[in-house]
Write a structure and sequence with these properties.
The protein is α+β, with helices and mostly antiparallel strands. It has a single domain, classed as Alpha-D-Glucose-1,6-Bisphosphate, Chain A, domain 4, CATH 3.30.530. Helices cover 22% and strands 38% of the residues. The chain has three helices and eight strands; from the N terminus they run ββααββββββα. An eight-stranded antiparallel β-sheet has the order 1-2-8-7-6-5-4-3. The chain is globular and about 45 Å long.
């Protein structure tokens, strides 16, 4: 987590044995997204297209596609729809999630950045969630089965 004058940022870098094309499918195809994150996903894979992911029952992230460069870069506006959790410090479209895929001899380097979070507490909560889900992505990408999401029964 890094704090700048304008925003709080969550950054992660993962190495994966899968090709960028395979990882891309898991980021941009709704049927494949739910293999590693969420119970339902919709994504209109074009600039300006809407996306919506029910990450956990009653916890829905939504926004739109900001940038799309298959299989290299996907940028989404990001935030949470109103729910039962009380006030929402990160409403839909208020932050930005970037996935950058770089081919390597061993597969893919995934550079992940979540920008525009309102404060350190929101960044910490999002970092916790992204660590969980990006770990599941790195299992799914080379063909592994991340299994049932343990958070579905125990909301984190």
């Amino acid at each position: 987590m890094e704090r700048t004058a304008e925003q709080v940022v969550c950054e992660r870098v993962f190495e994966d044995a899968a090709t960028p094309e395979t990882v891309w499918g898991l980021l941009a195809d709704p049927a494949k997204i739910v293999r590693w994150m969420g119970v339902n996903a919709e994504l209109d894979a074009r600039p300006g297209g809407a996306f919506r992911i029910e990450v956990l029952p009653g916890s829905v992230a939504s926004g739109e596609v900001v940038e799309l460069d298959p299989p290299r870069r996907l940028v989404l506006s990001w935030g949470w729809e109103p729910g039962a959790d009380g006030p929402n410090p990160v409403p839909p479209g208020s932050s930005t999630v970037e996935f950058e895929l770089v081919p390597t001899a061993a597969g893919t380097t995934l550079r992940f950045t979540h920008r525009g979070l309102p404060d350190a507490a929101a960044a910490e909560r999002h970092a916790h969630g992204w660590d969980h889900y990006l770990d599941r992505l790195t299992v799914a990408a080379p063909g592994g089965n991340p299994g049932s999401d343990p958070w579905l029964n125990n909301k984190q």
